[in-house]
Amino acid sequence: MSSSIGWGLIGASNVARQWIVDAIRAQPDSEILNVLSSSEERGARFATENGIPAHTTDIDAILTDANVNAVYISTANQFHCSQTLAAASAGKNILCEKPVALSIDDARKMIAACRDAGVVLAVNHHLRCNAMHQKLQQLLEAGAIGQLNAVRVFHANFLPQALQGWRVNDPNGGGLILDSTIHDIDTLRFLIGSNPTHVMAMTQSGRLAHDGVEDGIMVVMRFPGDVLVQIHGSYTVPFSEGGVEFYGSNGVLIGRDCMSQRAAGRLFMRNADGEKEIPVHHHNLYHYALAAFSNAVRGTGQPAATGEDGLAALAIALAIRESALTGRQVEVEIP
Question: Which residues form the GFO/IDH/MocA-like oxidoreductase domain (predicted)?
């Protein structure tokens, strides 16, 4: 392909408006050519507000455009699989929102279709692109706190009214686990470098969500090496500062204010010498992700989170959901 990347947005979403449009335009030789929305009115407004030359309600208008090399899929979760399969068949590279799909079978079909078509499939797990998490991963890999014993993740916040909708009323595609906890899962996989073997979970519902959709969760996970991990996630906790804590045999690494989409987070190490802050040089998470994706499309490197990363995170998330529904410890199987 030429060095220029033409984009089609499949979904006129809030995340596309707030983060992805800017991140695409921050890449050299990249432009957004069209946006799809099921609503003509919403699509027209999105295109006008974001300076996009065309909008459509027909996905084929994007997939048959030879100038479109890549698509960003941010429609409702139940459409990710069918739209990815259609895009792969049309030879388009794909950046898909999480969860990559709603079932393991669908995720595997998506990965296979993209592999067979020779196109890139990436999943928008943004937290692994946070500079603080990347610094933390380097320190863990270097053994800065000795043998890892336990981890705590705090990702509780209050979901704004504009983002509620399907997240709090769709028993299949909505809920905290596939919307937020799955980000924690991917971040833990990135930081620890392995997958959990077993999970247990309890959920809350009714504070914001309804019809049994979870809006709060506590998870316990066991990773290889007998490392225990706790996740607290919520849609209903205002004023909470998200963070992570890693406990090792020789010290503790603490990340504060590091579980959002912002280029933020402070990192501290606590050991026998006391507590000190570790310098972090921040960058825009989405600029970083889109740069990695663009390089992969041009044949250099891998996306920040691959389709396989998305599949693994989904498998763990579904195991957590099963545990919450059954009240049992669930063994994790990564396809």
Answer: 133-253
List per-residue pLDDT tens for the chain, 335 residues long.
558 999 999 999 999 999 999 999 999 999 999 999 999 999 999 999 999 999 999 999 999 999 999 999 999 999 999 999 999 999 999 999 999 999 999 999 999 999 999 999 999 999 999 999 999 999 999 999 999 999 999 999 888 877 777 787 777 777 899 999 999 999 999 999 999 999 999 999 988 887 788 899 999 999 999 999 999 999 999 988 899 999 999 999 999 999 999 999 999 999 999 999 999 999 999 999 999 999 999 999 999 999 999 999 999 999 999 999 999 999 999 98
User: Is the whole model's pTM more than 0.90, yes or no?
Assistant: yes
Question: φ, ψ for residue 304 (rounded to 5)?
Answer: -60, -45
Say how far apart CA 192 and CA 224 lie, in whole Å.
Answer: 10
Helix (H) or strand (E) segment spanning residue 10: strand 5-10
Fold of domain 127-284+315-331: Dihydrodipicolinate Reductase; domain 2 (3.30.360)
Boundaries of every domain in the chain: 5-124+286-302, 127-284+315-331
